[in-house]
Design a protein that fits this description.
The structure is a homopentamer of 357-residue chains. Chain A is built from ten helices and seven strands. By secondary structure, chain A is α+β, with helices and mostly antiparallel strands. In chain A, helix 7 runs antiparallel to helix 8 and helix 7 runs parallel beside helix 9. Chain A is rod-shaped, with a radius of gyration of 36 Å. Chains in contact: A-B, A-E, B-C, C-D, D-E. At the D-E interface, helix 4, helix 6, helix 7 and helix 9 of D face helix 3, helix 8, helix 9 and helix 10 of E.
Amino acid sequence: MLKFKYHQPGTAPATLVVPEGARSVTPVITLIEYDAETLTERKISGLEELTDCVQNQKVSWINVDGLGDLDLLKALGKKFGLHPLALEDVLNTGQRPKFEPYDNHFFIVAQMIYRDATGRLANEQVSIFLGKNFVISIQEEAEKDVFDPVRIRIRNGKGLIRTGKGDYLVYALLDAVIDHFYPVLEEIGEAIDQMESRIFENPTKTAFRDLHDYKRSLLQLRRMAWPEREVVNSLLHDENGMITKQTKVFLRDAYDHTVQIMDLIETYRDITSGLVEMYLSTVSMRTNEIMRVLTVISAIFIPLTFIAGVYGMNFHTEAGRWNMPELLHPYGYVICVGAMLLIAVGELIFFRRKGWI
Amino acid sequence: MLKFKYHQPGTAPATLVVPEGARSVTPVITLIEYDAETLTERKISGLEELTDCVQNQKVSWINVDGLGDLDLLKALGKKFGLHPLALEDVLNTGQRPKFEPYDNHFFIVAQMIYRDATGRLANEQVSIFLGKNFVISIQEEAEKDVFDPVRIRIRNGKGLIRTGKGDYLVYALLDAVIDHFYPVLEEIGEAIDQMESRIFENPTKTAFRDLHDYKRSLLQLRRMAWPEREVVNSLLHDENGMITKQTKVFLRDAYDHTVQIMDLIETYRDITSGLVEMYLSTVSMRTNEIMRVLTVISAIFIPLTFIAGVYGMNFHTEAGRWNMPELLHPYGYVICVGAMLLIAVGELIFFRRKGWI
Amino acid sequence: MLKFKYHQPGTAPATLVVPEGARSVTPVITLIEYDAETLTERKISGLEELTDCVQNQKVSWINVDGLGDLDLLKALGKKFGLHPLALEDVLNTGQRPKFEPYDNHFFIVAQMIYRDATGRLANEQVSIFLGKNFVISIQEEAEKDVFDPVRIRIRNGKGLIRTGKGDYLVYALLDAVIDHFYPVLEEIGEAIDQMESRIFENPTKTAFRDLHDYKRSLLQLRRMAWPEREVVNSLLHDENGMITKQTKVFLRDAYDHTVQIMDLIETYRDITSGLVEMYLSTVSMRTNEIMRVLTVISAIFIPLTFIAGVYGMNFHTEAGRWNMPELLHPYGYVICVGAMLLIAVGELIFFRRKGWI
Amino acid sequence: MLKFKYHQPGTAPATLVVPEGARSVTPVITLIEYDAETLTERKISGLEELTDCVQNQKVSWINVDGLGDLDLLKALGKKFGLHPLALEDVLNTGQRPKFEPYDNHFFIVAQMIYRDATGRLANEQVSIFLGKNFVISIQEEAEKDVFDPVRIRIRNGKGLIRTGKGDYLVYALLDAVIDHFYPVLEEIGEAIDQMESRIFENPTKTAFRDLHDYKRSLLQLRRMAWPEREVVNSLLHDENGMITKQTKVFLRDAYDHTVQIMDLIETYRDITSGLVEMYLSTVSMRTNEIMRVLTVISAIFIPLTFIAGVYGMNFHTEAGRWNMPELLHPYGYVICVGAMLLIAVGELIFFRRKGWI
Amino acid sequence: MLKFKYHQPGTAPATLVVPEGARSVTPVITLIEYDAETLTERKISGLEELTDCVQNQKVSWINVDGLGDLDLLKALGKKFGLHPLALEDVLNTGQRPKFEPYDNHFFIVAQMIYRDATGRLANEQVSIFLGKNFVISIQEEAEKDVFDPVRIRIRNGKGLIRTGKGDYLVYALLDAVIDHFYPVLEEIGEAIDQMESRIFENPTKTAFRDLHDYKRSLLQLRRMAWPEREVVNSLLHDENGMITKQTKVFLRDAYDHTVQIMDLIETYRDITSGLVEMYLSTVSMRTNEIMRVLTVISAIFIPLTFIAGVYGMNFHTEAGRWNMPELLHPYGYVICVGAMLLIAVGELIFFRRKGWI
């Protein structure tokens, strides 16, 4: 379940290798340049097209979808002065979300949570570079783009996103990534709520396995949410001056979201633990109940069967007067059945008093 | 069980949307203006009526019951300079209690605990703004108003509430919210105390489910109480000068209440954990006891039934002298029954020695 | 079990109400005035008698037993300038132990642990005010006085207690309260030690309930001991100059006691957890053992009884040559019993190999 | 198991009482005076002999074995200016290891771990005073002396111990005490390693009790090791100048040892928890297995026995043509036995499919 | 499982003893001297050959494989001024990873994780000294050398390793050690993933033991990874100037790796705990299921067998008209079998309603 990429122990640091699954896909690069008044947006085919944006004073947002082109990444790194260790982390997907301040740019790794085609929880690495006048975002997978709503907000030109600088854009991107936790948590919350009565009514193996799956999902969410909170917190306490005071107010809001997400995750974990407890106790109770039925039936009929067995013995009554004289008694059978009834009723009273029936 | 509202990932921050359930209700606004000598109190129908209170030096307490009117909230925000992110949190109910200092006002979210109509634990969000000369409190639900006791204290004009400023009023409001934990905890405490002997005497599935419900309630209370403590603590350590030293003495008292509430919640949680343990061990013990009864009865009668079975076999005694000669013996039956008695008594002694009966 | 008093949510802070149980008892007030050379001790009937002690330079220790007289407390508060919030905490018994520095006095709440008449663990609130030249101690219950040993030490006039100031007296009072944990812990420790072999030999339901009671007692002790440690620690780090350096050496000793008490409590909690584990495993093992006996007896006799049953069938041998010809065989019975013996011995060997008998 | 001495609540602090068990033994006092060149070593019978060592500039190490002589301790305290509270802790054995800086000397309590005559884990309190030019060590028990290796190193005159001052001697003593944890931990480690296969193969009650004993031993070790680490740490961060920089390098080594000891203890605790889990699961599995055998045998033979029972009924065939005509059928018996075989085989296949046999 | 070496309590610190297993092996010493332009590499037979490297300004990396030669280590210590306590830790293998700054050199202990010949997890101690112009690495075992990839990178002369100083080399060595965690964790991760369905389908004792083994492996990994993280962190925050700012960027990367490793370990531990829970619940469920089968079969046939037993009794019908008149009734048998069928069907319906079949 846990994906993590690593190089052979001893490999030089900052060794760049395209992850296996990503090789066949050609990355798509888009450039959005904007300030409060102007906006240009286009697809980029070669890095030389980017020369312009390094120079002007607009915010240049370069988005790369897919990790398939090593040369492109190297060229990008050279052009914008990105640290090789940061580029290594872009390619070694499965990183923990983290924030790393380099001399001339910030580097942020975030993990976006989503349900994949088979309905399993998956995470996609989103790497973000924030430098002077530029923001570079690199997404692990090419086909899906989580930043569309942000793009639309830029195009619409309303709100702070156009008047803000690159730091506000980074906030907007992070916020989009963080808010993806909410629908997943809502879904899990609903499932867990249904789980409770399901387990109480009918604690099947399948129910337990589902519960176990939710626990693992929550574990996975926590692994992602916890360091993401740290990322936002680090940005919030940045003292390099990369993050403006105005943006920090918004980052505080994003931080609040991560705190709420962690709180929800922990609460759901506590609830699932309670459900595991309930499952075990219900199974235990059921075994108890089954045993009670078995015991009551056995305890009643086993002695009666023994009595019947005794009078089914074939000792010859004519061999002596002590040989089963009851068999010859005119009311032998009636007395015998009566005794059986008495025993049965006695036991029923006994078990009722014990509270077993 | 956990309510939390969120916008689609990627939505612009500070997007204001009235929560679905709240749309149909028109909010009720009341204004109380007071200082040590004077007091005016009235319902407000339009925000233009508030112009006055922005200017004078009295404490203006504007209370809004219900979130149904978006325009009103926007106008309120504009008039008093409330931050849009704070207004968003007012509308996205289900927030964790929190304290946020903005440039010209404080923003506080608290959650009030109460039992709803069906007896379930519920929480209502109370949002409070504290600015220079004004306090705005916004309650999630229109029909219930938890601030009546505070209003009466203001009207009575006794005590510090009239001589104090807005910060004292905020303390009084928070204190009223926090103290709602006590009756709920008292009730849970009593229920848990009864639970103990109930579980010890008769550990039914229903008892366990009740126990489970209390655990969940305590979880919910803790989720609310913990951050509420942080809110009070933040106010207590405010260094902006919004909170006077005199009010801080009272906030320390409120802080003590939150600490005591947390302590009670944690203690009840420990006790319920002990009860779960007791439930499981009692069920386990009962199963053991049931098994013991079954085993003793089976162990005694199964061998006896076998012996009876043997002498119920139909081997023809006349076919050979070794064919069940016992059947023909004059004391066969007596000896046989005697042997059975001996076995039974022997087993009873054995089980008594083992401590099983 | 947990006592806590609270006012209706919304009640004004510092509202003084005598707790219900305490109303009927008239408090007893005693005054001890002393310095290194002189000592006067007397009962006080009216507060006007205290005028003198406010003025002189001796240490005045006013002890109040019982909370029944609201006017008295209010007068006391006025005379010595005690904060109304502190007085509220004196009356709202069941407070967590706490230390609160007010402008002109310290306020300390401690909880004394003792066994009540029925042998249950109970706690009595002791409130202490330390001001310039005066110490006021207020005990929840009138009939019992835990400060007698301190009084005797003052009367004897030996040791530091007479040369020390009010801060040393407060230390002596706190130390007396704290040391009450020791006999209770010793008792619990001995009971737990006996518990171990009791549970190992014979894990009854009663044993478990006793264990559960000890766990709850330890929980209660921890609730009291933990904040009491904080109280001593706060005094130890006082920087207002109320506590002299000399007294701090002794407070450090008291602090050590609280640390040792916490350590003992935590260790006993760990041990009781181990005993719960042992109980569950022993019950589980016993169920296993019982099942083994049942299974061995059933497994041996059920097949034999079946064989006996077969030869008890009444197929008419004369109806055909294949109808139970064994019954007519001269050694049929012997062979049959022999086969039964073989099966029984075989099974015994099988179970012995499995280690079940 | 936990020894702790305490005075009656309310007793004056620094009350000195010889512990009961120690009264009969006369303490043995030895004095070693040394510097880099000279060394004298002798037994002391009266404290007046110590006058000399207070004055000269050598390191004077006074070792007291046994706590039996209260006057001696008081005299020692007076001569060297030892604080009465420290002397109280020397006598109230069972203290947590601790470090207390007094004005003119340091006071250290350490606990030495050893196996007593019956093989149980025991601890002996070692109290150490470090002053200017003197070190006083006081051991709880007279007959055993753990400082012999240190004495030999001093006599040999090699290494830093002779050139070092009192602080280095204190380090050497503490190091000797701390290193006593290692052989005990090694022993427990080996026992736990054997435990694993023992529990897996044959989870008996005795095995569980042994496991439980190891857990308690580890609990006891942790209680001692944790504060001992704090003691060394406090010495390491001493800023009074009592501890030289050179000695601190060695104390850091001792600190490392305590860290390693804590790490071993925690790891063993984790392992024993895993073994408890394994024990419970193995017992649970065994019960399951036993039940399976019982169920298979019962399920096969109970229906067969019923069939045999049916044809053992005595309905008179001559009373009507529907009265057990099977009994008269020439192949009745064969068909009946055949049907029984079919049922048995069918059930065997069913259980094999379920994986129960 | 846990290896730790210790001297007899009381032994002088810095006592050097070659560990038993290492005595027979002669250590192999290699020297690599390099700067950005030049590189020499050779095997060293005597320490006098090292004189040169102490003087020049190149980086001298001395690698020692094996601990067998005590004199060599002492000479090395003398030549490079290594602290005796550090040398003691080199020989007392089984140390926790640690960082110790001495006056003129840093000392680092790391533990390399690998699978030994039998497939068990093992760790080898790697001790590293970093001084001015020299790095000394000492490996516990002679035959295996984990630093080959680093050596190759130096020989290739590319990258920072040749332009960097000794601090970068230490980083490279540590990085190589740390990255050995990854393949081990990957392997465990895969095994645990398979475990899940294995436990769910067929919870055997072996499966549990495997699970238990993984838990112990993770415990061992955590013991090593946690302090290794601290080592890197200490280097990262070095303020002595031994570590250049450039190297710190790389150490931050190594630190990230340790954080990720800890995160993986903790996550796997959580998952294995969940699997233990699943194992126990599955076994519990299986016992329940087995009991259900037993109970249903017993409950159905035991009463029927009793009825058959009753009509197998031999009361003489001719002894009285109340003696088993049913036997003479022409439809007695049919009615009896019919009643049996009714009872069986009734019970089947009852159990189906209970959800047991």
